[in-house]
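Fold it.
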Amino acid sequence: MNPIAARQPVVTAVAFGRGPSGAELDAIEKEMPLILAEVDLLDVEITTLDRPATVLDERRIRRARNRVLAERRTLTNRTVSVLMGGAA
């Protein structure tokens, strides 16, 4: 029996086992409200998979979508403001 092993070198030069850098953690922290809003939207959508959506379910989905859009807008405005030096 032949062992299965990679015949090519690893594509990335970064050593495995290291955690994210400080800059990557900062970026994740800035995007966390959007990530949480998207998780909430996914949770609401999952609850309606196995049954017909009621009026209340439709309202929850609409609110969750609006929250995602609001967080995206906030994140985009914050990014543009930083890129333009606060002049936006």
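The two ends are 64 Å apart (CA to CA).
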